[in-house]
Each structure stands twice: as C-alpha cells, then as structure tokens.
Amino acid sequence: MTAQQNKLIEVRTQKAIDFFEQGYNCSQSVLMAYADLYGIDQETATKFASSFGGGMGRLREVCGAVSGMFMVLGLHYPATDITDKKAKTTNYQAVQRTATEFKQEMGSYICADLLKIKRQPEEATPSERNTRYYALRPCSRCVAMAAEIVGTEIAKSSDTF
Hints:
The protein is mostly helical. Helices cover 66% and strands 0% of the residues. The longest helix is centred in the middle third of the chain and has 22 residues, at 85-106.
C-alpha cells in the first residue's frame, strides 16, 4: 500500500471513531466512514445500519462494527446478479478474510464476547453514552479496527482508493 492509501485509511478510521463518539452506533459509524465512496449519503447509511448496533439490536450477536464492515464490503464487492457465482464468492471471501483478521486482533467478532457478558438479548433501550460507557467498553477500538481492516481491504483491491 502507498503512503497516500495509508493516510486515507487513517482519516476514515478517525471518522468512524468520531461518528461513534458523537453517539452513532458501531455499525453506523463504520458504514458512514466509507459510504461516500459508493455514492451513499450519510442519512441513508445511518438508516441502513441503524439496527445492527449492540450486536444487532442489543442481541449481542455479531459486533455491530463488524456488521458495518460487511456492509461496506457488500458495496465494494457487490453480488447483485443471482447467477454470478463468482461475485458472490468474491464477496464471501472478503467477509471471511476480514472477519478472521478482526477476530485475530480483538479475540472475537461476537459482541457479548467482546463485552465479556452473557450472550443474550438485553433491554432494547441503549446505554447512556458517557465517560464511564467509553471507559468500560472496547467499542471505540472495535469501530477503529473494523474501519481500518475494511479500508485496507478496499485499498488492496482498488486503484481509486
């Protein structure tokens, strides 16, 4: 990768962190950091990813940052033609590659594991965002890691990034 690509990844990773710290959920934050590359405005990206925070609506399943990363991969490696097995395979390979990297870095891609809590749905009301919230959770780091991993994936496969 070039120095310019590394800088672009760094900028987008910081955007994702900033979105998260403004109050967007982890999934929204990652998708919003890259949405403009694919002609998607911030409001639409926010809507698409709104249900995936908290490991999918606080079910504590797949980390929302990872879900956001997968949404970006769907935009980057679209599989829109149902007869195009190669496109679907390319997408799934990217999903598996980036999920493996995230898991190696963070220890899991399951929200409950990352938070060290039981894997069960929690109350639907989101947690209050405050200093304690950010201090006790690895979520900002998860957002940063997902944004960096997907940026690297994009950079490796694109001349325009």
